[in-house]
Amino acid sequence: MPDMADKPTFVIFDGNHLVWRHAHTKAGQTLCTRDGTPSGIIHGFLSSFCYIVKQFQPERVYVTWDHKSRARRRIMEAYRDKLMRNHSTLLAETPTQYKAARYQNRTNEDHSHFQEVILPQMDALKDIIPALGVRQLSVDDVEGDDLIGIAADKLSNEDARIIIVSSDQDLYQLLAGNVEMFEPIKKKHFTYDDFKTTYKMEPWDWVEVKALMGDEGDDIPGVPGIGEKIAVKLHNQYDGLLEVIEAAKQAPKSAVMKRIPEYEGQIQLAYDLSYILSDHRQLDKDQEVEFLEQWNEVPKLNWDEVVRFVDYYELKKVHQELRAVLVDNSLEAKLNTAPTLDAMFDIWGDCKRCPLSETRNKLVRYSGPAVCRVMFLGEGPGPSEDFYGDPFVGKAGRYLDDMLLASIGLPRANAHVANAVCCFPNINGEIRPPTPEEVLACEPRLKAHIRLVRPRVVVLMGDKANKAVFPDAGKISEEHGIEKSHPDFPGVVFFPVFHPSYLMRLMPGPTGHSDVVKSLNDWQVIKRLYEGA
């Protein structure tokens, strides 16, 4: 098993599983507010969340939620249609639909408890999770296990340690050298090595065991008389599911083996129903679009909303625990306590917080003095910056140096230059503006960056740079040349101007395009501001 000590950690919560685990604890069944509102599941869920975040210090956290699987319904319906034509005996033994018994076997009391106690708390958790700064995956007609499988596979490309918070044995097939499971109630790990030691097979073979034994709880039919122990024994004895089936057809001796050929179609059905997806391209197109939209969202911590939530449910201890892991020990807190700009970037690390990291060549930090009276902020690196690793070194950079900085007598070496995002926004190598989600992912770094430079003036070059600091800002054509202040940076003047790449395409000089003339005036104001005149 590879050493994961120095790798970033990502945590994936099996949301439904954690809710049900806490629903069956004493606190989950009895805890409520003074007015009788049930709160035990919320208390348990958020307490587990705090423990895991504190224990593992994850770089990112995901919570997945379950929906009935459209794909598995199709598989079950196709199998039953086939049995209707060819095998009426087995048809009677096959569930009418996937996971039907889970709902049919509920008593009226169970149903009322779910509707009145469990479901409202689950919905409340779904509402508050984005305010925790946590990514949430909940796609119509896609099971939570499939979302976990797809997420684990995508995160595996980032050379990281992945922890799945669940004790659901269906997820064993996802275990790998960098993927482990953590049981949140008993606080126990289950790793790739643990699985190999216990079952003497590779984790991805677990679906073959499930194909033989089925899963009564999920209405997945197996071979009658085969449970986990026998399924594991047969798989290991014959070295795989296909070999078990082939051996069963060759004069089998035991009653169990004699039964397997009759249920071969059912074994295939159980395999298909138990197999967990690992690629978003395996989803239907509408589901894939919804998944990718959720995957690329970058939620922001809304502490005021979190406080209102825990106060409503009267969770004083959870309030303290959440403050400790989300505020006092958050990435933002670490960035803001960095003594120098380079130390802050060391904390930021080899950032993979948004999809831009997948196509970048270099993470572009800054140029110029680390502490400077004037800071120039662009929107993002271009291809030249991505190649060299420094901001504004292409055509726009030359225009900035030769036309704009020169017009106020400021050498480039005396100016601090950076961008709202550190990675090259592009589509197949073609320049594009960063999306609001990409800018938001870089926001903690940008805020710490500005504080550590300690500028008197921050020049916001272009619309995207202006909106990176002031999300509700208007068009740059309306806001350029206006001095602005920001509550997070008292005493600092923010000054929007046209982007150099826009100006360089216009007729130059004092008799040129009107925006060039306006820009020359704006830059004289910049000179006055940073010189303190």
Q: How would you explain this protein's 3D organization?
A:
This protein is an alpha/beta fold. The chain has two domains: 288 residues, Rossmann fold (3-Layer(aba) Sandwich), CATH 3.40.50; 193 residues, 3-Layer(aba) Sandwich (Uracil-DNA Glycosylase, subunit E). The protein is 49% helix and 9% strand. The protein contains 26 helices and twelve strands. The strands form three sheets. A six-stranded mixed sheet has the order 3-2-1-4-5-6, with helices on both faces. Helix 3 runs parallel beside helix 17, helix 11 packs across helix 12 and helix 16 packs antiparallel against helix 17. The mean pLDDT is 90.
Which structural traits does this protein have?
single chain, 533 residues, alpha/beta, Rossmann fold, Uracil-DNA Glycosylase, subunit E, 2 domains, six-stranded mixed sheet, four-stranded parallel sheet, 26 helices, 12 strands, 49% helix, 9% strand
